[in-house]
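Section 5.1 Outputs to date
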Amino acid sequence: MENIYVFDDGVIRGFIEMNGTQLSKIYVDSFFQSQGVGDALIRYATEEFGADNLWALEKNKRAISFYQNHGFQVTGRKRLEENTTEYLVKLER
């Protein structure tokens, strides 16, 4: 796994975690959302790591829309998130 961080004044404002070509995690500080940080992170993940798949919470429509705007499509596969009753959906590019 490899982590890439975005810092602002020494504070982490966002990061991605890659596991091969799977985008395992993406996070953007709520104060920096809708400012291009997530766009830059996902673009970096796809261009530098060849990110081609990820899992997202099925109920998180905002995140799924974000991923779709970056070329990912819902595959129809889903699974339960560990230790929860929430479903994850698979997206691929």
